[in-house]
Design brief:
The chain is of the alpha/beta class and 308 residues long. The chain is 42% helix and 24% strand.
Length: 308
């Protein structure tokens, strides 16, 4: 069994066709079929079943697929890491990030990167949760991830800064002339909630925070993306929580931003399976330098245990 055979197998699975896979791999269909048959002999049974229209996995193939996918992705990541270690030019870097970070912070970071390292191709993968980031790094889809560090992460974790969580209301809100507000003052207000809202010990952060303030938040709208929630709040649908860098840097300052009293912050990191080298190390250094909110050791603890 060879890595090339597993790459051929994955190509056939992804294309659902020997013909299209051969075209993608730039090999003849007979050469592809020969390698697949050799792989099947190695594992001791058929992995793929040819159908009148396409190809499907056999039970053995379904069991084999996730391991082959991991091997192929790990090999690709190993090649990228080796090229990156040789220098920060002429390679590529796959970065996984929370959506809020990708929208609010990374555009400026990527622009600085392109100016300093035009020879390195950046691939951005956006996700909603820390669990998704962790899975992509573990599978080798991403070389590193930007977000809250997973609990008990066995690899490298580099602190890069903090994310400040603010409250968003429209310009005509009764609190529009203020800069801070306490949660009990918002007990009677509707809320715009987001699927990307962090979890703390299995509970949505806003439910937890409002519960400690003596009330349960009344949800007016539930959105998929934080940027949409901010727009809804600016229009007067309800109050929403959002990272400060999304409100001003990405969505536009057409709303009023209030700081909760006490303030909410959470530390964000870069985490990877191995210590960053070459291009990855250079990217981490640039990210730490460009981060708008430095890490504050005395920041409130509510979001420090967060795994969004």
């Amino acid at each position: 069994m060879s890595l090339r055979q597993m790459e051929y197998f994955m190509a056939v699975v992804e294309e659902a066709s020997f013909t299209r896979a051969a075209e993608t791999l730039h090999v003849t269909q007979s050469a592809l079929s020969h390698q697949i048959k050799a792989l099947e002999r190695s594992v001791g049974g058929a992995l793929l079943e040819r159908m009148p229209r396409g190809v499907r996995l056999t039970p053995m193939g379904r069991a084999f697929r996730p391991h082959a996918e991991l091997a192929v992705r790990s090999a690709a990541q190993a090649r990228r890491a080796a090229r990156a270690a040789a220098g920060a030019e002429g390679g590529e870097l796959h970065v996984a990030a929370l959506h809020s970070v990708a929208v609010g912070i990374l555009p400026d970071v990527f622009a600085r990167w392109r100016a300093a390292h035009p020879g390195v191709l950046l691939h951005l993968h956006e996700y909603a949760t820390t669990e998704a980031l962790q899975e992509r790094v573990e599978r080798g889809t991403a070389d590193l991830a930007v977000g809250p560090a997973p609990r008990d992460w066995p690899g490298t974790v580099v602190p890069v800064g903090e994310e400040e969580i603010v409250l968003v209301v429209p310009f005509d809100d009764r609190f529009a002339g203020r800069t801070t507000v306490t949660l009990p003052e918002l007990a009677d207000r509707p809320w715009v909630r987001c699927a990307m809202e962090p979890l703390v010990e299995g509970e949505r952060f806003l439910d937890r925070a409002c519960g400690r303030a003596g009330f349960r938040p009344r949800t007016a709208v539930f959105t998929e993306h934080t940027s949409t929630a901010v727009r809804m709040a600016a229009a007067g649908v309800g109050v929403c929580t959002a990272p400060s860098h999304i409100v001003g840097g990405a969505v536009g300052e057409d709303c009023v931003v209030l700081t909760p009293d006490p303030p909410w912050r959470r530390p964000l990191t870069v985490f990877a399976r191995v210590p960053p080298t070459g291009a990855a190390e250079a990217f981490v250094a640039l990210l730490r330098d460009a981060w708008p909110t430095p890490l504050i050791p005395t920041a409130p603890a509510d979001l420090r245990a967060t795994s969004p």
